[in-house]
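Need C-alpha cells for this chain, all 452 residues.
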Amino acid sequence: MRLAATSLFFLIGSGAAFAADCAASNVPPDVVIAPDSRSASVFPAGFVVSGGSTDSCSVSVDVPIPDGYYGVYKIDSRGFVALNDGESSTYSVTYDGGTQSAVVDGEYLEDAFYTHYFGTGLGPVASFDAEFGLEVDGDGSSSAELDSIDVLAGFTSWNSQVASVSELSLARTALVTHLGATGELLIGGNQPRERGDSLGAFGALGSHIVGGIGHFNLGGGFILDGGAALFDQSVGGIAGNGALLGLKASYLQPDDGTSFRLIGSAGLRLAPGMNLTFTRHYSDGSDEGATVLADTTGNLFGIEAEAGVLVRPGPTSELVFTAAASRTWLGVEGYEETIGGSNLFPITTDTATGTFDVVKLKAAWTSELAEDLDLTLHGAVGHGFAHDDVVADVAFVGDVSTGGVSEFFAEYGARLGWAYSPATTMSVFALGSTGAESGTHMQAGAGLAIEF
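Here are the C-alpha cells for all 452 residues:
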C-alpha cells in the first residue's frame, strides 16, 4: 500500500534550510549539514519501490546562488537495486524543467551511486528544488531504494573564469619564453663562438634535461651547431616534457686582423609530441576555490635569425654582441577537463595553434682564466609578442576568450670549462630565465665535450 505523503522542514544553519515531501515514507529523514552551508545530505528513510511501481520525492535545499554568479548543483544519490534478468529500474532527477535519468538492467547493486549536475545560469537562485523518481519494471520480487541525497552548490563569476583562462594563455607564453632559453644549450649558446669541432653530452637539474650537442666548422667561416635533448620543465603554470631539437647554421667572418668580425646565423627549434599539463584556478564558492590540472599534448616549431659582431679584446678572450628575431608556432591539442566536486566548472578547448614573435639582444663574454680553464658569461634581454587568443568553453558558463600574453624577459647564465686533456673538456654551468609575467626558471648542470 502506498504510504501517506509527509511534508518535512528542517532548519540547517546559516539561513539555509531543507524540506522534503516523499510520498514513499512518513518517517522524518535524517539531515546532515556542512559547516560552509554549501551542501546538505538527506536520508529519506523508507523510499523503496517494488517491481511494477513508481514513486517520487520532492526535495528543496535552501543553498542559494548569489546574484550575478553562475551556479551549478551537484547531486549525489545512493541506494540499492535488486532486479531479476530482463527487468530494469529507472532513477531520475528533475530540476528546473530538465530531467536526467539512469537506467539499470537486470542487476543486483548493493551500493548504486549516481551523480548529476544541473546548471542554474546567472543567479540569484533561492534554492535547489528537485523531484527524485524511482521506477521498477518487474514483478514484486524486484525493488529499488534511494538511501541518501547529497546536494553541493557551486558558483563562479565571469571575471574569475576569464582570469582562469588567462592563466592558460600565460602558460603558453611561459613555455615559449623559458623553453627558448633552455634550447640555447643545444646550439652553443653558453660556449665560445670560436672552438674546435666537437661532440658532447650534458645534463641539468632544476628542470631536468639531458642531451647531446655537436659543433662543426665547415670551412670559409661557416659553422653548424646542433643538438637533441629530453626535457622535463615546469614554470608559469605549465609543465612540459618530451624531446627538444635545435639546429643553427652560422657564418663568422674569417679573422683578417680587424677589430670587429661580422656574425650571422639562421636556426630552428623543434619539440614534437610534448606532454603538457596546464594549471588554472577559479572561485567556486569554497574558501580556497578550485585548482585544476589538465593533461594534453603539443608541438612547438620555431625559426630564428641572428646578426652581430665578434670582438677580440685580447688573444684569449672574445666578446659577442648580437640581435635576434624569431617566430614560434605552438600547437596545443584540444582537451576536456573532468567534472567533479573539485571542478564544478570544467572547460573544453579545441585544438589551436598560437603564434609568438620574439626579439632579443644578446651578449656573451669568454675568457681563459688559466691555460686549462675558461669562463663564459652570457645574457639577453627581449620581448615576446603573443598574437592569438585562447578560447575555452566553460561548463554552465559558456565560451570565454582571452588575449595572448606578451612579456619582457631576461636570460642569463655562466659556464666554467676545464680542459683536463688536449681533446676533452668538462664543464659546469648555470642557466636562468625570468619573464615579467611568467616568473623565473633556473637550471644547473654539467657537460663533457670531446674535440676531434
